[in-house]
Amino acid sequence: MVVLTPQSEFGVAPPPTTPYSIVSNIPLWENSRKFRDGDMSVAAKLKHIYPRFGPTHYVAQLGMEIAKRLDLEGKGIFLYLNPDMWAYTARHATTKSHRAEHVLKPEDLTFRCVDIAGHRVYAVLYDVRNTFGVMESWGNPGLGLSIRGAEQLLEGIDHLWEVPLSGDNKETPPEPTWTPESDAHDGLRERISELVNRAPRDPGTFVKSRPHDVFLYPTGMAAVHHSTRTVLKYRPGTLVILGVVFHSTHHHLLEESPHGFKHIGKVDEEAMDELERWLDEQKAEDKPVSYVLVEFPGNPTLDTPDVARVKRLSEKHNFVLVVDDTIASFANVDLLDQCDILLTSLTKSFSGLANVMGGSIVLSPSSPHYTSLSPLFTSTHRNELFARDAKVLLSNSNDFLNRAAILNRNAAAVAAFLSERMAGDPDCPVVKVRHPSLLPSRPLYDAFKRAPTPQLPEPAYGCLFTLDFENEDAASTFHDNCGFYPSPHLGAHVTIQLAYNMVVWGRRPEERARFRELGIKEEAVRISVGLEAAEDIVDTIRYALDKTVALKKDGYKKD
């Protein structure tokens, strides 16, 4: 029996540890709670963390250098290639309904622009005491400088010069330069196009995508951000989320919905009926719907929506359907003909090594909106993915299908073990295993599996599942005795666990109550299997469950 344990210290990424690592090690349930609540004693120990939580490594170094050269040393600083982030940050940080007690005044933000090594960089500076008021403007749109991008700019820091501003600087920033594309960008578009065309469910009707249908972004959330802005230009209207989706996506769309926001929190048949009735009401009242976004499957519920029915509704009501396939991945499922925009976080299993960020959208050539969306995306897209990041994404994805097969097998082994354990152990503290293969919505997932191929003989359900426990004592005991890396992220080379529901939905009481009604309970642990041996992952879970059962019998009295 092999029980896995983290091979790094508190706050440090698993091997191979580099400045670009995006997984951390945040041991103990209580530390996750403290991190959620902004406890600086935990944050101070983090050498590595998911980059959308804040500037790290070379990004932090570059920020300090720029602030010093602007005579603003000691200020917090966010850095972007996109000038729109000035107005975006000003709007979001100063809106009380979004920031509540952390709302800022306009004068709390300073905007400056510099040129470094041929790149125009837009800086947002703030008093570090106001970090909670601005941090989501860094995290949700996902447009902050990447670690490798900042490393590149640091190499030219001695040639920095400040670009003079005129007028209301946040509304009229200097013209951007963006960052040049490379052969790796072309290679990524070709690879993604090949993968979404691979092994279609119905070769007779499938319409292939081409590389020019693929658009690249610096993060998955940047793909969400730009999709939202572009579709709203094409079709202004209400933004709709169906099901429980990634928390940053939810919060971002909630705040980026000038014409209205609608959330239908479940994806079962009753929820689908509710969506259809609401759409009919909107049509009767002549209120347009811009787009509906679904995840396939949802995060962290792992429920699969009836995407075929949503597609039919999109054709009836003429809204744009955006499907995020990040968890299933386009290795396993074929969804291009069931949506208008296919959105993927390339940071996750496509990359797989937890050392680079990226995102993509693929426009569906069979979409009735394609002839309008294609020229609109093409004319408005500007490159914000640094060449160094594109090169790593391309290299990492060389063995994507091989890794997808391992992740599928490992998750299936865990799901089988947990099902057997729950059936055979009356003291098992797990009350539900959320994995697409074990949920009532499995047939909706299976309908869109790709055809088997020698490269991926058994397309399956991806790397992610969630364990619901009988109470928080059981969840925290399991978490603290399970030897996976406690960290945000999924789809990495190592197995990761996270008290996801508690961390992302537990801070605001109204959100906690709302999402609890949708089955998102704090007494849960989300696990993303890695590439370790399946038996080692299972043995590690078995060990943690045994410890939890033993402590359960002792009333959860901890040493």
UniProtKB/TrEMBL annotation:
InterPro entries recorded: Cys/Met-Metab_PyrdxlP-dep_enz (IPR000277), PyrdxlP-dep_Trfase (IPR015424), PyrdxlP-dep_Trfase_major (IPR015421), PyrdxlP-dep_Trfase_small (IPR015422), Trans-sulfuration_enzymes (IPR051750)
Pfam families membership: Cys_Met_Meta_PP (PF01053)
Biological processes per GO annotation: transsulfuration
Keyword Nucleotide-binding: no
Cofactors required: pyridoxal 5'-phosphate
The keyword Magnesium is assigned to this record: no
Record keywords, A-Z: Pyridoxal phosphate
Signal sequence extent: none
GO MF term list: cystathionine gamma-synthase activity; pyridoxal phosphate binding
Similarity field: Belongs to the trans-sulfuration enzymes family.
The protein, known as: Cystathionine gamma-synthase-like protein
Organism: Hapsidospora chrysogenum (strain ATCC 11550 / CBS 779.69 / DSM 880 / IAM 14645 / JCM 23072 / IMI 49137) (Acremonium chrysogenum)
